[in-house]
């Protein structure tokens, strides 16, 4: 079973308890345990939970960063595909790395990895 310590060991980029508090981890773990059916995910459930939690912790940190800058923490932000500064412009095509109909999961690399697994878990029937 995925625990906070095993999550932070496997995902060291989330080791900072100030940026990624235990309370937020536990919220997303609890939510993930309710949403990811153990019968469907079987022995990949911990990996699914890991990407699920990482996705939501990333969105949480984005909202906190926005809030600290005085911006709207609840503002919906998509993937940035172009940016201009003075006369310099840069564009990126993210279509090759995002998933069709991925919705909000395309906002983080963790969400994309979660959705790839979730789609595999949804494939085929299940014996009751």
Would you mind describing this structure in some detail?
The chain is mainly α and 128 residues long. Helix content is 48%, strand content 6%. It contains five helices and two strands. Strands 1-2 form a two-stranded antiparallel ribbon. Helix 2 crosses helix 4 and helix 4 packs antiparallel against helix 5. The longest helix is centred in the middle third of the chain and has 24 residues, at 45-68. The chain is globular. The two termini are 23 Å apart. The model has no long low-confidence stretch (mean pLDDT 83).
Q: Largest sheet, order of strands side by side?
A: 1-2
Helix content: 40-55%
Radius of gyration: 17 Å
Order of helices and strands, N to C? HHHHEEH
What is the molecular shape?
globular
Overall pLDDT score: 83
Helical region count? 5
Supply the helix-strand structural class: mainly alpha
Distance between the termini: 23 Å
The largest β sheet comes out as: 2 strands, antiparallel
Share of residues in strands: 5-15%
Which residues form runs of ≥5 with pLDDT under 50?
none
Count of beta strands: 2
List descriptors.
mainly alpha, two-stranded antiparallel sheet, 48% helix, 128 residues, 2 strands
Give a brief rundown of this model.
The chain has 128 residues and is mainly α.
List the helices and strands and how they pair.
Elements: H1 4-10, H2 22-35, H3 38-41, H4 45-68, E1 82-85, E2 88-91, H5 109-121
Antiparallel strand pairs: 1-2
Helix pairs in contact: 2-4, 4-5
